[in-house]
Amino acid sequence: MKHFSTLFILLFLSFIFPNVTYASAQETVKIEKDTTAYFYLHNNQEVKYITLKKGETYLATIEDLTWMIEIGNAKVHIDKQDAKSINEKITPAQNNNKLQILTNDSTPVYNSHRNSSRQIATLSANTRISSNGVKGYFYEVVIGGKLGYVPIKKMQVDAGVPILIYHHFVENIQKSYFRNNISVVDIVDFEQQMTFLKNEGYTTISLKDLDQWMQKKQALPAKAVALTFDDANLSLEKMVYPILKENNMHGTTFVIGNRVKEETPPFNSEAEIVQFAGFKELHSVMDLIEIEHHTYALHVYNDALKRSQLQLTSAKDLHYDIQQTNEVLKQIDPNIQAQYYSYPYGKFNKNHEATFIENNISLAFLNKGGKAKITSPRLYVPRIPVQNSMPLEQFKSFVLN
């Protein structure tokens, strides 16, 4: 009778809330052989995370045809056949997310911080994991509900995720009309920067990946970087997109709604004005570049008041502006569901927080502040501006941990 009642309640809830999924209960599983676990980024890229040793037991849940095991903030997957459910109770250890740590190389995980400990797993190279803090000569981590210990000397403390900002691009910046504009980047410099990221093994993550990490629902690679392009200039499609395509990289552009047009003039890399991408151009880059909010009509700066139009606008008018931008984005592609916002000029008004939340803005971004931390305020996420003629060594210093 008890099982019938439970089933009835679940069926009732699924009828009332048809889009809600219900996680299966945690079970204790025993690893049948040394098994590598993975997680997946938003673009379905598979990331190798940890190798669990044969005979170890963990808490897990069934998800499709895999076991899902929580490791720090990560939810990693192993094939169902690689572990079996056993009748053993594990009282879950607390994961307090005290700090984020990184691996450079593959790193052993032990069952104790004492000399008599045994190795229970191996963290993969280029892994970011949350830790409960220091215990002796080790960092304490939680793997499948159980405590594990990784040597301090093998780890780095995470300095955060670099979120890079770009705007307009030209050829030969020193001969360009924009040579004195710090926000305009020579396309040759950009290509060198992307080559550096690729050679160093960086993964260009989506803002959805960043969002999930900041919500402590997903891991990220240690070498994760987000590329963002404010204003959706036409140089993004004509000059940047081919470089991203060649390097299999991804980014996000923040669109100024009232500057997106049906027709755009032929691209002129030597033009003395900034050209903006139109509906067709933005739609054509969506396989690599996600489209998000940068206001509809509030990208104006009041020199007399030293404030942006967004800072001066009312909550009601901001709500309307966001809705207007949503309409523009739907014209680019009806499947766009924007939830990230770049403040024009990086200027904000704290009285607008409720308006952003009401309009499903999950993260909003500044144009300064350094690397993003897992604890960064969600409506004030810092970024790193890439500027005119920035030496490659300076770019490296902004990116490297």
UniProtKB/TrEMBL annotation:
| Zinc-finger is among the record's keywords | no
Tell me which UniProt keywords the record has, alphabetically: Signal
Where the record annotates domain NodB homology, the positions are: 223-401
| Signal peptide extent | 1-25
Q: Which SUPFAM superfamilies match?
A: Glycoside hydrolase/deacetylase
Q: Which domain of life is it from?
A: Bacteria
Q: Which InterPro entries match?
A: Glyco_hydro/deAcase_b/a-brl, NODB_dom, Polysacch_Deacetylase
Q: What is this protein called?
A: Polysaccharide deacetylase family protein
Gene3D superfamilies assigned to the protein according to its UniProt record, in alphabetical order: Glycoside hydrolase/deacetylase
Q: Which organism is it from?
A: Solibacillus faecavium
Q: Does the UniProt entry include the keyword NAD?
A: no
